[in-house]
């Protein structure tokens, strides 16, 4: 399923903001990591309808990916 591109961009902003807050990193660092993450790949390609999951869930998944890589 493909999401509306504008709504998807807004979703990215909310997820990045929440990820930065829970990880204690800057928005810039959070955004850079997000756009190179597996979560972004799955969301942008509509894999497993990741874009339908809550912002907090996605931010926590992103945090786990971030911690695993760092």
Keywords:
single chain, mainly alpha, 70 residues, 4 helices
Secondary-structure blueprint:
Elements: H1 5-23, H2 27-34, H3 38-45, H4 55-69
Can you describe what's shown?
It is a single chain. By secondary structure, the chain is mainly α. It has one domain (5-69). Helices cover 71% and strands 0% of the residues. It contains 4 helices and no strands. It has helices at 5-23, 27-34, 38-45, 55-69. Helix 1 (5-23) crosses helix 2. The longest helix is centred in the first third of the chain and has 19 residues, at 5-23. The protein is globular, with a radius of gyration of 11 Å. The termini are far apart.
Please trace the helix and strand order, writing H or E for each element.
HHHH
Poorly predicted ranges (pLDDT <50, ≥5 residues)?
Answer: none
Largest sheet: none
Please indicate the percent range of residues in DSSP E strands (runs of 2 or more): under 5%
Report how far the terminal alpha carbons are from each other: 32 Å
**Number of folding domains?**
1
Query: How does the overall form come out from the CA principal axes?
Result: globular
Computed over alpha carbons, the radius of gyration is 11 Å
